[in-house]
Specification:
With about 90 residues, this protein is an all-alpha fold. The protein is built from six helices and no strands. About 10% of the residues are buried.
């Protein structure tokens, strides 16, 4: 089973709260994206990228847990590992 340290999970949860709130709007302007970016400590561009992934249905926990020092940088297939873990149960 995949786990995450509490601080990583907290960050993921916070991002999900902010991005899901933005996703309820049909369009997200620069002001709303800028506010979200300031809340999350990321760039407005990153907010739009997270929003696009969320709307595409790829805003899964596996994405939320990726950081520069984990699966994204090692090339590990987190989604595949989750699928394998789920299929074993």
């Amino acid at each position: 089973m995949l786990t995450a340290p509490p601080e990583i999970w907290g960050l993921a949860t916070r991002r999900a709260e902010v991005i899901s709130r933005l996703a309820t709007s049909a369009t997200v302007g620069h002001a709303a994206a800028g506010t979200a970016a300031a809340e999350l400590g990321v760039s407005r561009r990153q907010v739009y990228a997270m929003l696009a992934r969320w709307r595409a249905g790829s805003g899964l926990a596996s994405y939320r847990l990726r950081t520069r020092c984990t699966a994204a940088s090692t090339g590990a297939d987190v989604n595949g590992a989750q699928a394998e873990n789920i299929s074993r149960k």
